[in-house]
Protein backbone atom coordinates (compact mmCIF):
# COMPACT_ATOMS: atom_id res chain seq x y z
CA UNK A 1 0.00 0.00 0.00
CA UNK A 2 1.14 3.49 -0.81
CA UNK A 3 0.74 6.18 1.78
CA UNK A 4 -1.20 9.29 0.82
CA UNK A 5 2.05 11.20 0.71
CA UNK A 6 3.67 8.77 -1.72
CA UNK A 7 0.59 8.80 -3.93
CA UNK A 8 0.71 12.56 -3.93
CA UNK A 9 4.39 12.56 -4.93
CA UNK A 10 3.78 10.07 -7.70
CA UNK A 11 0.86 12.08 -9.08
CA UNK A 12 2.89 15.27 -8.94
CA UNK A 13 5.78 13.63 -10.76
CA UNK A 14 3.37 12.33 -13.39
CA UNK A 15 1.91 15.78 -13.97
CA UNK A 16 5.36 17.31 -14.23
CA UNK A 17 6.31 14.69 -16.80
CA UNK A 18 3.23 15.39 -18.93
CA UNK A 19 3.82 19.14 -18.71
CA UNK A 20 7.46 18.58 -19.64
CA UNK A 21 6.55 16.53 -22.73
CA UNK A 22 4.11 19.20 -23.90
CA UNK A 23 6.66 21.94 -23.37
CA UNK A 24 9.35 19.96 -25.19
CA UNK A 25 6.98 19.34 -28.12
CA UNK A 26 6.15 23.01 -28.37
CA UNK A 27 9.77 24.08 -28.06
CA UNK A 28 10.84 21.51 -30.65
CA UNK A 29 8.18 22.59 -33.11
CA UNK A 30 8.82 26.30 -32.74
CA UNK A 31 12.57 25.73 -32.72
CA UNK A 32 12.41 23.75 -35.95
CA UNK A 33 10.30 26.39 -37.73
CA UNK A 34 12.42 29.27 -36.47
CA UNK A 35 15.80 27.65 -37.16
CA UNK A 36 14.78 26.92 -40.72
CA UNK A 37 12.93 30.16 -41.31
CA UNK A 38 14.88 32.87 -39.51
CA UNK A 39 17.75 33.10 -42.01
CA UNK A 40 15.18 34.12 -44.64
CA UNK A 41 13.75 36.99 -42.64
CA UNK A 42 14.93 40.33 -43.95
CA UNK A 43 13.36 43.68 -44.71
CA UNK A 44 13.51 42.80 -48.36
CA UNK A 45 11.67 39.50 -47.72
CA UNK A 46 8.79 41.02 -45.81
CA UNK A 47 8.27 43.93 -48.19
CA UNK A 48 8.82 42.72 -51.74
CA UNK A 49 6.33 40.78 -53.88
CA UNK A 50 6.89 37.09 -54.66
CA UNK A 51 8.63 35.91 -57.83
CA UNK A 52 7.07 33.19 -59.89
CA UNK A 53 9.99 31.77 -61.87
CA UNK A 54 13.13 33.21 -60.24
CA UNK A 55 14.41 33.11 -56.69
CA UNK A 56 14.67 36.02 -54.30
CA UNK A 57 10.99 36.89 -54.03
CA UNK A 58 9.27 38.07 -50.83
CA UNK A 59 5.90 37.94 -49.14
CA UNK A 60 5.12 41.66 -48.77
CA UNK A 61 1.62 41.67 -50.32
CA UNK A 62 0.70 38.45 -48.49
CA UNK A 63 1.66 39.98 -45.16
CA UNK A 64 -0.38 43.06 -45.97
CA UNK A 65 -3.33 40.91 -47.07
CA UNK A 66 -3.26 38.95 -43.84
CA UNK A 67 -3.53 42.10 -41.76
CA UNK A 68 -6.08 43.73 -44.03
CA UNK A 69 -8.32 40.67 -43.93
CA UNK A 70 -7.98 40.51 -40.18
CA UNK A 71 -9.01 44.14 -39.77
CA UNK A 72 -12.01 43.76 -42.08
CA UNK A 73 -13.03 40.54 -40.35
CA UNK A 74 -13.01 42.27 -36.99
CA UNK A 75 -14.94 45.21 -38.42
CA UNK A 76 -17.65 42.79 -39.58
CA UNK A 77 -17.71 40.38 -36.67
CA UNK A 78 -17.05 42.54 -33.60
CA UNK A 79 -20.26 44.59 -33.63
CA UNK A 80 -22.36 41.48 -34.18
CA UNK A 81 -20.47 39.58 -31.48
CA UNK A 82 -20.81 42.46 -29.04
CA UNK A 83 -24.54 42.69 -29.66
CA UNK A 84 -25.10 38.96 -29.40
CA UNK A 85 -22.77 38.55 -26.40
CA UNK A 86 -24.39 41.40 -24.47
CA UNK A 87 -27.82 40.07 -25.31
CA UNK A 88 -26.97 36.54 -24.20
CA UNK A 89 -25.23 37.66 -21.03
CA UNK A 90 -27.58 40.40 -19.87
CA UNK A 91 -30.99 40.10 -21.44
CA UNK A 92 -31.55 36.54 -22.58
CA UNK A 93 -34.17 34.65 -20.68
CA UNK A 94 -34.07 30.91 -21.02
CA UNK A 95 -36.53 30.36 -23.86
CA UNK A 96 -36.62 28.78 -27.30
CA UNK A 97 -35.10 31.85 -28.99
CA UNK A 98 -32.02 32.06 -26.79
CA UNK A 99 -31.65 28.31 -26.76
CA UNK A 100 -31.62 28.27 -30.55
CA UNK A 101 -29.09 31.12 -30.62
CA UNK A 102 -26.83 29.19 -28.28
CA UNK A 103 -27.17 26.01 -30.30
CA UNK A 104 -26.42 27.91 -33.53
CA UNK A 105 -23.30 29.35 -31.96
CA UNK A 106 -22.20 25.89 -30.83
CA UNK A 107 -22.80 24.38 -34.26
CA UNK A 108 -21.06 27.24 -36.04
CA UNK A 109 -18.04 26.92 -33.81
CA UNK A 110 -17.71 23.23 -34.54
CA UNK A 111 -17.88 23.60 -38.34
CA UNK A 112 -14.56 22.70 -39.97
CA UNK A 113 -13.08 25.81 -41.52
CA UNK A 114 -12.93 24.22 -44.97
CA UNK A 115 -16.71 23.87 -44.79
CA UNK A 116 -17.02 27.53 -43.87
CA UNK A 117 -14.77 28.22 -46.87
CA UNK A 118 -16.98 26.23 -49.21
CA UNK A 119 -20.06 27.97 -47.90
CA UNK A 120 -18.31 31.30 -48.50
CA UNK A 121 -17.44 30.17 -52.01
CA UNK A 122 -21.04 29.27 -52.85
CA UNK A 123 -22.62 32.25 -51.18
CA UNK A 124 -20.26 35.22 -51.35
CA UNK A 125 -18.14 34.28 -54.36
CA UNK A 126 -20.78 32.75 -56.64
CA UNK A 127 -24.21 33.79 -55.43
CA UNK A 128 -23.38 37.37 -54.43
CA UNK A 129 -21.02 37.57 -57.39
CA UNK A 130 -18.11 39.08 -55.49
CA UNK A 131 -15.64 36.59 -56.91
CA UNK A 132 -12.43 35.64 -55.15
CA UNK A 133 -12.07 38.81 -53.16
CA UNK A 134 -11.10 40.30 -49.86
CA UNK A 135 -14.72 40.98 -49.04
CA UNK A 136 -15.69 37.34 -49.62
CA UNK A 137 -12.72 36.22 -47.54
CA UNK A 138 -13.43 38.64 -44.71
CA UNK A 139 -17.07 37.58 -44.55
CA UNK A 140 -16.14 33.89 -44.54
CA UNK A 141 -13.63 34.56 -41.77
CA UNK A 142 -16.33 36.46 -39.88
CA UNK A 143 -18.55 33.39 -40.01
CA UNK A 144 -15.61 31.34 -38.80
CA UNK A 145 -14.71 33.83 -36.06
CA UNK A 146 -18.14 34.84 -34.82
CA UNK A 147 -18.92 31.91 -32.50
CA UNK A 148 -15.65 32.28 -30.65
CA UNK A 149 -16.07 36.04 -30.34
CA UNK A 150 -19.64 35.76 -29.12
CA UNK A 151 -18.47 33.40 -26.42
CA UNK A 152 -15.58 35.67 -25.50
CA UNK A 153 -17.93 38.62 -25.13
CA UNK A 154 -20.55 36.67 -23.22
CA UNK A 155 -18.03 35.17 -20.83
CA UNK A 156 -16.15 38.35 -20.08
CA UNK A 157 -19.43 40.15 -19.40
CA UNK A 158 -20.63 37.33 -17.18
CA UNK A 159 -17.42 37.42 -15.22
CA UNK A 160 -18.31 40.90 -13.96
CA UNK A 161 -19.91 40.25 -10.57
CA UNK A 162 -23.58 41.00 -10.04
CA UNK A 163 -22.68 43.32 -7.18
CA UNK A 164 -21.16 45.75 -9.69
CA UNK A 165 -24.46 45.89 -11.55
CA UNK A 166 -26.41 46.38 -8.35
CA UNK A 167 -24.10 49.22 -7.37
CA UNK A 168 -24.92 50.84 -10.70
CA UNK A 169 -28.67 50.37 -10.32
CA UNK A 170 -28.46 51.76 -6.78
CA UNK A 171 -27.09 54.98 -8.29
CA UNK A 172 -30.17 55.32 -10.45
CA UNK A 173 -28.53 53.98 -13.61
CA UNK A 174 -30.84 52.20 -16.01
CA UNK A 175 -30.02 48.67 -17.07
CA UNK A 176 -28.49 49.82 -20.33
CA UNK A 177 -26.50 52.61 -18.67
CA UNK A 178 -25.20 50.12 -16.15
CA UNK A 179 -24.07 47.84 -18.97
CA UNK A 180 -22.32 50.55 -20.96
CA UNK A 181 -20.91 52.56 -18.06
CA UNK A 182 -20.01 49.88 -15.56
CA UNK A 183 -20.18 46.34 -16.90
CA UNK A 184 -18.45 46.85 -20.26
CA UNK A 185 -15.54 48.88 -18.83
CA UNK A 186 -15.08 46.26 -16.13
CA UNK A 187 -15.18 43.52 -18.78
CA UNK A 188 -12.89 45.36 -21.19
CA UNK A 189 -9.56 43.79 -20.20
CA UNK A 190 -11.00 40.30 -20.62
CA UNK A 191 -12.70 41.35 -23.85
CA UNK A 192 -9.51 42.69 -25.34
CA UNK A 193 -7.51 39.63 -24.37
CA UNK A 194 -10.15 37.38 -25.92
CA UNK A 195 -10.42 39.45 -29.09
CA UNK A 196 -6.68 39.40 -29.66
CA UNK A 197 -6.54 35.64 -29.15
CA UNK A 198 -9.38 35.24 -31.64
CA UNK A 199 -7.51 37.52 -34.02
CA UNK A 200 -4.47 35.24 -33.82
CA UNK A 201 -6.64 32.33 -34.90
CA UNK A 202 -8.06 34.31 -37.83
CA UNK A 203 -4.60 35.46 -38.83
CA UNK A 204 -3.34 31.91 -39.29
CA UNK A 205 -6.43 30.56 -41.01
CA UNK A 206 -5.98 29.14 -44.51
CA UNK A 207 -8.72 26.65 -45.36
CA UNK A 208 -11.60 29.15 -45.10
CA UNK A 209 -9.78 31.51 -47.46
CA UNK A 210 -8.63 29.28 -50.31
CA UNK A 211 -12.02 29.38 -52.02
CA UNK A 212 -13.05 32.85 -50.89
CA UNK A 213 -10.17 35.32 -50.91
CA UNK A 214 -8.40 33.28 -53.54
CA UNK A 215 -4.83 32.16 -54.08
CA UNK A 216 -3.46 35.08 -56.03
CA UNK A 217 -2.72 38.72 -55.57
CA UNK A 218 -2.81 41.15 -58.48
CA UNK A 219 0.03 43.60 -58.97
CA UNK A 220 -0.50 46.19 -56.30
CA UNK A 221 0.51 49.82 -56.24
CA UNK A 222 1.30 50.59 -52.60
CA UNK A 223 1.11 54.33 -53.27
CA UNK A 224 -2.52 54.17 -54.36
CA UNK A 225 -4.79 54.16 -51.28
CA UNK A 226 -8.07 54.81 -53.08
CA UNK A 227 -10.15 51.72 -52.19
CA UNK A 228 -12.00 51.93 -55.50
CA UNK A 229 -8.93 51.77 -57.69
CA UNK A 230 -8.25 48.26 -59.06
CA UNK A 231 -4.53 48.34 -58.23
CA UNK A 232 -5.04 49.73 -54.73
CA UNK A 233 -4.11 47.39 -51.86
CA UNK A 234 -7.28 48.56 -50.11
CA UNK A 235 -9.64 47.53 -52.90
CA UNK A 236 -11.96 45.01 -51.18
CA UNK A 237 -13.00 43.40 -54.45
CA UNK A 238 -9.57 42.19 -55.48
CA UNK A 239 -8.37 38.65 -54.76
CA UNK A 240 -5.95 38.40 -51.89
CA UNK A 241 -3.78 35.52 -50.86
CA UNK A 242 -2.70 35.62 -47.21
CA UNK A 243 0.50 34.34 -45.62
CA UNK A 244 -1.06 31.07 -44.56
CA UNK A 245 -2.59 30.47 -47.99
CA UNK A 246 0.70 31.40 -49.64
CA UNK A 247 2.57 28.78 -47.62
CA UNK A 248 0.01 26.18 -48.59
CA UNK A 249 0.22 27.19 -52.25
CA UNK A 250 3.97 27.25 -52.75
CA UNK A 251 4.31 23.91 -51.03
CA UNK A 252 1.90 22.48 -53.57
CA UNK A 253 2.70 24.27 -56.77
CA UNK A 254 5.58 26.69 -56.19
CA UNK A 255 7.92 26.60 -59.18
CA UNK A 256 10.44 29.22 -58.04
CA UNK A 257 13.85 27.68 -57.28
CA UNK A 258 13.83 28.81 -53.66
CA UNK A 259 10.25 27.66 -52.96
CA UNK A 260 11.03 25.66 -49.85
CA UNK A 261 13.19 28.43 -48.36
CA UNK A 262 10.41 30.96 -49.00
CA UNK A 263 7.89 28.67 -47.39
CA UNK A 264 10.14 28.24 -44.33
CA UNK A 265 10.59 32.00 -44.04
CA UNK A 266 6.88 32.66 -44.39
CA UNK A 267 6.10 30.00 -41.79
CA UNK A 268 8.51 31.60 -39.33
CA UNK A 269 7.00 35.01 -40.03
CA UNK A 270 3.47 33.70 -39.54
CA UNK A 271 4.28 31.99 -36.26
CA UNK A 272 6.14 35.04 -35.07
CA UNK A 273 3.10 37.22 -35.78
CA UNK A 274 0.77 34.85 -33.97
CA UNK A 275 3.13 34.62 -30.99
CA UNK A 276 3.14 38.39 -30.86
CA UNK A 277 -0.66 38.39 -30.88
CA UNK A 278 -0.80 35.93 -28.01
CA UNK A 279 1.82 37.67 -25.91
CA UNK A 280 0.34 41.09 -26.50
CA UNK A 281 -3.11 39.76 -25.58
CA UNK A 282 -2.05 39.42 -21.95
CA UNK A 283 -0.05 42.58 -21.94
CA UNK A 284 -2.65 44.82 -23.59
CA UNK A 285 -5.45 43.52 -21.37
CA UNK A 286 -3.48 44.31 -18.25
CA UNK A 287 -2.40 47.67 -19.60
CA UNK A 288 -5.95 48.70 -20.45
CA UNK A 289 -7.13 47.66 -17.01
CA UNK A 290 -4.45 49.76 -15.35
CA UNK A 291 -5.13 52.75 -17.57
CA UNK A 292 -8.84 52.50 -17.09
CA UNK A 293 -8.97 52.01 -13.37
CA UNK A 294 -6.92 55.16 -12.99
CA UNK A 295 -8.60 57.91 -14.92
CA UNK B 1 -42.63 74.33 -0.62
CA UNK B 2 -39.28 72.56 -0.65
CA UNK B 3 -40.54 69.39 1.01
CA UNK B 4 -43.11 68.92 -1.71
CA UNK B 5 -40.94 69.88 -4.63
CA UNK B 6 -38.23 67.35 -3.86
CA UNK B 7 -40.26 64.15 -3.69
CA UNK B 8 -42.36 65.08 -6.67
CA UNK B 9 -39.27 64.39 -8.76
CA UNK B 10 -39.75 60.67 -8.39
CA UNK B 11 -42.93 60.92 -10.38
CA UNK B 12 -42.52 60.58 -14.08
CA UNK B 13 -45.71 62.54 -14.58
CA UNK B 14 -46.75 65.39 -12.35
CA UNK B 15 -50.37 64.34 -12.02
CA UNK B 16 -50.26 63.29 -8.41
CA UNK B 17 -48.44 66.25 -6.93
CA UNK B 18 -51.68 67.74 -5.67
CA UNK B 19 -52.18 64.71 -3.46
CA UNK B 20 -49.03 65.65 -1.57
CA UNK B 21 -50.25 68.66 0.29
CA UNK B 22 -50.76 67.87 3.92
CA UNK B 23 -49.01 68.11 7.23
CA UNK B 24 -45.42 67.61 5.95
CA UNK B 25 -43.84 67.97 9.35
CA UNK B 26 -45.65 65.12 11.02
CA UNK B 27 -45.65 62.82 8.05
CA UNK B 28 -42.92 60.16 8.14
CA UNK B 29 -40.21 60.33 5.51
CA UNK B 30 -40.81 56.75 4.54
CA UNK B 31 -43.37 54.23 5.63
CA UNK B 32 -44.40 50.74 4.70
CA UNK B 33 -47.93 49.49 4.99
CA UNK B 34 -48.39 45.73 5.19
CA UNK B 35 -45.37 45.22 2.96
CA UNK B 36 -44.77 41.65 1.85
CA UNK B 37 -42.00 40.35 -0.39
CA UNK B 38 -41.98 36.97 -2.09
CA UNK B 39 -39.24 35.06 -3.87
CA UNK B 40 -41.33 32.78 -6.03
CA UNK B 41 -43.46 30.87 -3.52
CA UNK B 42 -41.27 31.74 -0.59
CA UNK B 43 -42.46 34.69 1.47
CA UNK B 44 -39.42 36.47 2.87
CA UNK B 45 -41.18 39.52 4.35
CA UNK B 46 -44.71 39.41 5.78
CA UNK B 47 -47.03 42.36 6.32
CA UNK B 48 -44.48 44.75 7.71
CA UNK B 49 -45.77 48.15 8.83
CA UNK B 50 -42.96 50.52 9.74
CA UNK B 51 -42.43 54.27 9.75
CA UNK B 52 -39.15 56.10 9.36
CA UNK B 53 -38.97 59.69 10.56
CA UNK B 54 -36.92 62.40 8.96
CA UNK B 55 -33.41 62.87 10.41
CA UNK B 56 -33.47 59.69 12.40
CA UNK B 57 -31.37 56.54 12.26
CA UNK B 58 -33.39 53.34 12.38
CA UNK B 59 -31.63 50.04 13.01
CA UNK B 60 -33.10 46.82 11.64
CA UNK B 61 -32.03 43.83 13.69
CA UNK B 62 -32.91 40.16 13.75
CA UNK B 63 -31.44 36.71 13.17
CA UNK B 64 -29.89 35.73 9.86
CA UNK B 65 -32.42 35.03 7.12
CA UNK B 66 -35.26 36.92 8.81
CA UNK B 67 -35.71 39.24 5.82
CA UNK B 68 -33.87 42.42 6.83
CA UNK B 69 -31.97 42.77 3.57
CA UNK B 70 -35.03 41.84 1.55
CA UNK B 71 -37.06 44.50 3.35
CA UNK B 72 -34.31 47.09 2.90
CA UNK B 73 -33.96 46.34 -0.80
CA UNK B 74 -37.68 46.71 -1.24
CA UNK B 75 -37.46 50.31 -0.10
CA UNK B 76 -35.53 51.49 -3.16
CA UNK B 77 -37.06 48.81 -5.37
CA UNK B 78 -33.76 47.00 -5.83
CA UNK B 79 -35.71 43.74 -5.68
CA UNK B 80 -37.28 44.61 -9.03
CA UNK B 81 -34.15 43.25 -10.68
CA UNK B 82 -34.44 39.81 -9.09
CA UNK B 83 -36.34 37.39 -11.23
CA UNK B 84 -39.38 35.92 -9.52
CA UNK B 85 -39.40 38.52 -6.77
CA UNK B 86 -42.71 40.24 -6.14
CA UNK B 87 -44.07 42.67 -3.60
CA UNK B 88 -47.44 43.36 -2.02
CA UNK B 89 -48.54 46.19 0.23
CA UNK B 90 -47.42 49.80 0.05
CA UNK B 91 -44.29 51.84 0.46
CA UNK B 92 -44.85 55.57 0.80
CA UNK B 93 -42.02 58.00 0.35
CA UNK B 94 -43.07 61.51 1.38
CA UNK B 95 -46.58 60.30 0.86
CA UNK B 96 -46.00 58.98 -2.65
CA UNK B 97 -46.82 55.36 -3.30
CA UNK B 98 -43.54 53.97 -4.67
CA UNK B 99 -45.05 50.98 -6.42
CA UNK B 100 -47.38 53.11 -8.52
CA UNK B 101 -46.96 53.23 -12.25
CA UNK B 102 -46.25 56.95 -12.32
CA UNK B 103 -43.15 56.50 -10.23
CA UNK B 104 -39.83 56.54 -12.05
CA UNK B 105 -37.78 53.85 -10.38
CA UNK B 106 -34.47 55.42 -11.44
CA UNK B 107 -35.42 58.63 -9.63
CA UNK B 108 -36.40 56.63 -6.57
CA UNK B 109 -32.97 55.03 -6.43
CA UNK B 110 -31.35 58.38 -6.94
CA UNK B 111 -33.09 59.77 -3.87
CA UNK B 112 -33.03 56.64 -1.76
CA UNK B 113 -29.36 55.69 -1.87
CA UNK B 114 -27.93 52.34 -0.87
CA UNK B 115 -24.65 50.98 0.45
CA UNK B 116 -24.01 47.26 0.46
CA UNK B 117 -22.46 44.88 2.94
CA UNK B 118 -19.26 44.46 0.96
CA UNK B 119 -17.61 47.48 -0.62
CA UNK B 120 -18.28 47.54 -4.37
CA UNK B 121 -15.92 50.09 -5.89
CA UNK B 122 -15.98 50.40 -9.67
CA UNK B 123 -12.69 49.64 -11.43
CA UNK B 124 -12.09 53.35 -11.95
CA UNK B 125 -10.30 56.14 -10.23
CA UNK B 126 -11.42 57.40 -6.84
CA UNK B 127 -12.62 60.60 -8.48
CA UNK B 128 -14.62 58.80 -11.16
CA UNK B 129 -16.24 56.51 -8.62
CA UNK B 130 -17.74 59.49 -6.85
CA UNK B 131 -18.38 61.62 -9.94
CA UNK B 132 -20.07 58.88 -11.95
CA UNK B 133 -23.55 59.31 -10.52
CA UNK B 134 -23.65 63.10 -10.83
CA UNK B 135 -22.23 62.89 -14.38
CA UNK B 136 -24.94 60.45 -15.34
CA UNK B 137 -27.56 62.72 -13.84
CA UNK B 138 -26.49 65.71 -15.85
CA UNK B 139 -23.73 67.57 -13.98
CA UNK B 140 -21.25 68.56 -16.67
CA UNK B 141 -19.11 71.40 -15.35
CA UNK B 142 -15.72 70.30 -14.11
CA UNK B 143 -15.81 72.80 -11.25
CA UNK B 144 -19.17 71.63 -10.06
CA UNK B 145 -18.04 68.01 -10.20
CA UNK B 146 -14.85 68.80 -8.31
CA UNK B 147 -16.93 70.42 -5.62
CA UNK B 148 -19.33 67.47 -5.37
CA UNK B 149 -16.48 64.98 -5.21
CA UNK B 150 -14.67 66.90 -2.48
CA UNK B 151 -17.87 67.48 -0.53
CA UNK B 152 -18.92 63.86 -0.65
CA UNK B 153 -15.47 62.56 0.24
CA UNK B 154 -15.29 64.98 3.16
CA UNK B 155 -18.69 63.89 4.42
CA UNK B 156 -17.58 60.27 4.18
CA UNK B 157 -14.44 61.13 6.20
CA UNK B 158 -12.21 59.99 3.37
CA UNK B 159 -11.02 63.24 1.83
CA UNK B 160 -7.86 63.68 3.87
CA UNK B 161 -6.73 60.15 3.12
CA UNK B 162 -7.21 60.33 -0.65
CA UNK B 163 -7.05 63.97 -1.72
CA UNK B 164 -3.51 63.58 -3.09
CA UNK B 165 -4.27 60.68 -5.38
CA UNK B 166 -7.84 61.18 -6.52
CA UNK B 167 -6.98 59.93 -9.97
CA UNK B 168 -5.55 56.61 -8.91
CA UNK B 169 -7.47 53.38 -8.97
CA UNK B 170 -10.12 52.94 -6.28
CA UNK B 171 -9.18 49.26 -6.13
CA UNK B 172 -5.98 50.17 -4.34
CA UNK B 173 -7.79 51.48 -1.29
CA UNK B 174 -8.17 49.35 1.84
CA UNK B 175 -11.50 47.65 2.51
CA UNK B 176 -12.52 50.31 5.03
CA UNK B 177 -11.57 53.10 2.66
CA UNK B 178 -13.44 51.41 -0.17
CA UNK B 179 -16.57 51.22 1.94
CA UNK B 180 -16.32 54.91 2.81
CA UNK B 181 -15.79 55.58 -0.89
CA UNK B 182 -19.04 53.74 -1.60
CA UNK B 183 -20.75 55.90 1.00
CA UNK B 184 -19.28 59.00 -0.65
CA UNK B 185 -20.53 57.72 -3.99
CA UNK B 186 -24.03 57.38 -2.57
CA UNK B 187 -23.82 60.83 -0.96
CA UNK B 188 -22.74 62.43 -4.23
CA UNK B 189 -26.25 61.78 -5.49
CA UNK B 190 -27.54 63.98 -2.65
CA UNK B 191 -29.96 61.32 -1.47
CA UNK B 192 -32.81 62.00 0.86
CA UNK B 193 -32.70 58.58 2.48
CA UNK B 194 -29.70 56.28 2.84
CA UNK B 195 -30.09 52.50 3.17
CA UNK B 196 -27.13 50.69 4.69
CA UNK B 197 -26.97 46.89 4.69
CA UNK B 198 -24.46 45.84 7.33
CA UNK B 199 -22.03 48.45 6.03
CA UNK B 200 -19.39 47.73 8.65
CA UNK B 201 -19.59 43.97 8.96
CA UNK B 202 -16.52 43.37 6.80
CA UNK B 203 -14.47 46.14 8.38
CA UNK B 204 -11.90 46.57 11.13
CA UNK B 205 -12.82 48.42 14.36
CA UNK B 206 -11.18 51.69 13.31
CA UNK B 207 -13.03 51.86 10.00
CA UNK B 208 -16.21 50.81 11.78
CA UNK B 209 -15.85 53.65 14.28
CA UNK B 210 -15.34 56.09 11.41
CA UNK B 211 -18.48 54.91 9.68
CA UNK B 212 -20.51 55.08 12.87
CA UNK B 213 -19.35 58.63 13.46
CA UNK B 214 -20.21 59.45 9.90
CA UNK B 215 -23.75 58.14 10.36
CA UNK B 216 -24.16 60.44 13.36
CA UNK B 217 -23.15 63.39 11.17
CA UNK B 218 -25.28 62.40 8.21
CA UNK B 219 -28.54 62.11 10.09
CA UNK B 220 -28.58 65.88 10.51
CA UNK B 221 -29.37 66.05 6.81
CA UNK B 222 -30.92 62.77 5.80
CA UNK B 223 -32.86 59.78 7.00
CA UNK B 224 -30.89 56.60 7.60
CA UNK B 225 -31.96 52.97 7.81
CA UNK B 226 -29.25 50.50 8.74
CA UNK B 227 -29.23 46.71 9.01
CA UNK B 228 -26.80 45.45 11.59
CA UNK B 229 -25.96 42.26 13.46
CA UNK B 230 -24.00 44.14 16.04
CA UNK B 231 -26.21 44.96 19.02
CA UNK B 232 -23.76 47.44 20.53
CA UNK B 233 -23.61 49.20 17.21
CA UNK B 234 -27.39 49.38 16.92
CA UNK B 235 -27.52 50.80 20.40
CA UNK B 236 -24.77 53.36 19.79
CA UNK B 237 -25.94 54.80 16.52
CA UNK B 238 -29.68 54.40 16.16
CA UNK B 239 -32.61 56.42 17.44
CA UNK B 240 -35.13 53.73 16.69
CA UNK B 241 -34.86 49.98 16.37
CA UNK B 242 -37.05 47.41 14.67
CA UNK B 243 -36.70 43.72 15.47
CA UNK B 244 -37.47 41.23 12.68
CA UNK B 245 -38.12 37.54 13.09
CA UNK B 246 -38.97 35.13 10.28
CA UNK B 247 -40.13 37.83 7.91
CA UNK B 248 -42.27 39.64 10.46
CA UNK B 249 -41.55 42.86 12.26
CA UNK B 250 -41.97 41.91 15.87
CA UNK B 251 -41.25 45.15 17.66
CA UNK B 252 -40.43 48.73 16.78
CA UNK B 253 -39.66 51.63 19.11
CA UNK B 254 -37.06 54.01 20.47
CA UNK B 255 -33.71 52.23 20.68
CA UNK B 256 -33.32 52.85 24.40
CA UNK B 257 -36.66 51.33 25.15
CA UNK B 258 -36.10 48.30 22.88
CA UNK B 259 -32.79 47.54 24.52
CA UNK B 260 -33.68 48.28 28.13
CA UNK B 261 -37.29 47.29 28.29
CA UNK B 262 -38.56 45.42 25.24
CA UNK B 263 -42.25 44.68 25.14
CA UNK B 264 -41.79 41.32 23.46
CA UNK B 265 -40.13 38.40 25.17
CA UNK B 266 -38.67 37.32 21.81
CA UNK B 267 -36.96 40.66 21.33
CA UNK B 268 -35.47 40.44 24.80
CA UNK B 269 -34.08 36.98 24.08
CA UNK B 270 -32.54 38.07 20.79
CA UNK B 271 -30.94 41.16 22.26
CA UNK B 272 -29.48 39.19 25.14
CA UNK B 273 -28.04 36.71 22.68
CA UNK B 274 -30.36 33.77 23.27
CA UNK B 275 -31.61 33.58 19.66
CA UNK B 276 -28.99 33.10 16.96
N1 LIG C 1 -32.43 36.31 -4.37
C1 LIG C 1 -33.13 35.48 -3.56
N2 LIG C 1 -33.84 34.46 -4.10
C2 LIG C 1 -34.55 33.62 -3.32
N3 LIG C 1 -34.61 33.69 -1.98
C3 LIG C 1 -33.92 34.67 -1.37
C4 LIG C 1 -33.14 35.62 -2.14
N4 LIG C 1 -32.56 36.48 -1.27
C5 LIG C 1 -32.96 36.09 -0.04
N5 LIG C 1 -33.78 35.01 -0.09
C6 LIG C 1 -34.42 34.34 1.05
O1 LIG C 1 -35.21 35.27 1.74
C7 LIG C 1 -35.07 35.14 3.13
C8 LIG C 1 -34.59 36.45 3.74
O2 LIG C 1 -33.30 36.74 3.29
P1 LIG C 1 -32.57 38.09 3.63
O3 LIG C 1 -31.33 38.14 2.82
O4 LIG C 1 -33.50 39.21 3.49
O5 LIG C 1 -32.23 37.86 5.17
P2 LIG C 1 -31.37 38.76 6.13
O6 LIG C 1 -32.23 39.06 7.29
O7 LIG C 1 -30.80 39.92 5.41
O8 LIG C 1 -30.23 37.76 6.57
P3 LIG C 1 -28.70 38.08 6.90
O9 LIG C 1 -28.70 38.68 8.25
O10 LIG C 1 -28.05 36.73 6.89
O11 LIG C 1 -28.18 38.99 5.84
C9 LIG C 1 -34.09 33.99 3.36
O12 LIG C 1 -34.86 32.83 3.62
C10 LIG C 1 -33.38 33.86 2.04
O13 LIG C 1 -33.04 32.52 1.81
MG1 LIG D 1 -28.79 40.52 4.83
Write a short abstract of this structure.
By secondary structure, chain A is an all-alpha fold. Chain A contains eleven helices and no strands. The longest helix of chain A is centred in the C-terminal third of the chain and has 35 residues, at 259-293.
Overview of this protein structure:
The complex is a heterodimer of chains A (295) and B (276). Chain A is mainly alpha-helical and 295 residues long. Chain A folds into 2 domains: 1-40; 44-293, MetI-like fold. Chain A contains 11 helices and no strands. By secondary structure, chain B is of the alpha/beta class. Chain B has one domain (29-271): P-loop containing nucleotide triphosphate hydrolases (Rossmann fold). Helix content of chain B is 34%, strand content 23%. A 6-stranded mixed beta sheet of chain B has the order 6-7-8-3-9-10, with helices on both faces. The interface between A and B is medium-sized, with 22 and 31 residues. Bound molecules: adenosine-5'-triphosphate and magnesium ion. Residues 39, 42, 44, 62, 64-70, 82 of chain B line the site of adenosine-5'-triphosphate. Magnesium ion binds at residues 68-69, 197 of chain B.
Q: Helical stretch count of chain B?
A: 11
Instruction: Decide which structural class fits the backbone of chain B.
Output: alpha/beta
Which fold name corresponds to the CATH topology of the largest domain in chain A? Answer: MetI-like fold
Measured on Cα atoms, how large is the radius of gyration of chain A?
A: 23 Å
Supply the CATH architecture of the largest domain in chain A. Orthogonal Bundle
Considering the chains and any ligands shown, give keywords for the structure.
heterodimer; A: 295 residues; mainly alpha; MetI-like fold; 2 domains; 11 helices; B: 276 residues; alpha/beta; Rossmann fold; six-stranded mixed β-sheet; 34% helix; globular; disordered N terminus; binds adenosine-5'-triphosphate; binds magnesium ion
